[in-house]
């Protein structure tokens, strides 16, 4: 709210007094005061309180931050005015009409919805005009001209690969000894003994893949490679045994899934999402960072070129 110099002086002296008369008695109700000066404009306590109501903020925690935000907005609105970026009445009317259309509301329903939020149509129009103006000035002085180049995206990816890591995976190879259905105790013992003997051979250094090919009883055993699996998705028996292994070490015999298993941990890896899969995400991140940095720098320039008094 821009106040004429005479009014500003009166407010700064503590004017705007309201009296309530009842019979012969009178009482002081409100004393407004200036809480900030921004060049030749002011922000009063009532302005701040109205903003608190509109923004539904916690007064004790956010009052000072809210006032700083109001100061920044006044600086930006002044910059918009200097740059000829004021929103015309027609543009504002068109914006309100578009909002009503998108929400399937006529004027009566729209004003009723505003009333529920504690706003009059004029208050809403003033808020919307300011937001439209701030958007214009932001686009002109902050957003326009900002770009993110491929080398920047690639460099960010290389520096922050941990951000794009997938769950750890293990690659396991196994030798399998099948237990017959309804196997007797002696059959189980014999097969376990065979598995234990093969485990000893593997630990002494025999070629594990050759052992898979010669003794494993999987129908489609191949070379026993189970491929890469996320640790959380591996069978519990394999996951528990592999947890204490280093690549190249073996464990067993493990009884599960219809037989005895000897496993060798082949490899542990932490996959990273491919650059092409995260390129757009990184580009958006970097663009947002540039906008925030440019915005802060621009605000500092506006503040440095202005006379500001925060009296809160």
Descriptors:
312 residues, disordered N terminus, Chitinase A, domain 3, elongated, alpha+beta, 3-stranded antiparallel beta sheet
Report on this model:
- By secondary structure, the chain is an alpha+beta fold.
- The protein has a domain of 104 residues: Roll (Chitinase A, domain 3).
- The chain has eleven helices and nine strands.
- The strands form three sheets. It has a four-stranded antiparallel β-sheet with strand order 6-5-8-7. A three-stranded antiparallel β-sheet has the order 4-3-9, with helices on both faces.
- Strand 3 and strand 4 form a beta hairpin.
- The chain is elongated.
- The two termini are 18 Å apart.
- The N terminus is likely disordered.
What secondary-structure arrangement, pairings included, does this model have?
Elements: H1 5-12, E1 17-22, E2 25-31, E3 34-38, E4 41-44, H2 45-55, H3 59-82, H4 89-102, H5 107-116, H6 121-143, H7 150-159, E5 169-178, H8 185-203, H9 208-215, E6 225-230, H10 236-243, E7 250-256, E8 259-269, H11 275-304, E9 308-310
Antiparallel strand pairs: 1-2, 3-4, 3-9, 5-6, 5-8, 7-8
Helix pairs in contact: 3-6, 6-11, 7-11
